[in-house]
User: Fold this.
Amino acid sequence: MNKIKDKISFNSPVILGFTAVCLFSLILGLITDGETNRLFFSVYRSSLFNPLTYLRLFTHVCGHASFEHFMGNITLILVIGPLLEEKYGSKNMLFVILSTALVTGLANFILFPNIALLGASGIVFALILLASFTGMQDSKIPLTFILVAVIYFGEQIYQGIFVNDNISNFTHILGGVCGAVLGNVMNKQKMSRY
Assistant:
């Protein structure tokens, strides 16, 4: 048993912790037939006097409607996230997750009062755009970022206009914008240290 423990590395505490919280909230949602998602893990217009309103601005990214929804988001997060956490550090990764959650939560709260939003897809798209900045050097915009942005934003705009699939394309776009902005800022800060 110790040999196995010695071979496994806890390489990405923020991404692994986020995954564990999402799995826990999924299990709670399945056990309670979605009640915990409604109370804690989705964001929607509610009273500003309710303390849970403010909590949900962050925790909505942990809730998922189904196992398939969870797997679609978490698989991408587990593939991309550890590489980004290694490059940018755990504190920055946590900041990316929390700021993306807040931006997408506030946007949904303000702009879509009758729609409940849950899921980590905004985080997924933030990480995708953030990953495209990893090759940034000398303040030059990487061609990979331009290609990813054009393909990604184009697809989300197309789906938002022409496909009625109950997916929040607006959240994906906002997540991508958060990833792009934070990637630019973090890379500039990293370059200014050298």
Remarks:
- The chain is about 70% helix and 0% strand.
- The CA atoms of residues 183 and 189 lie 10 Å apart.
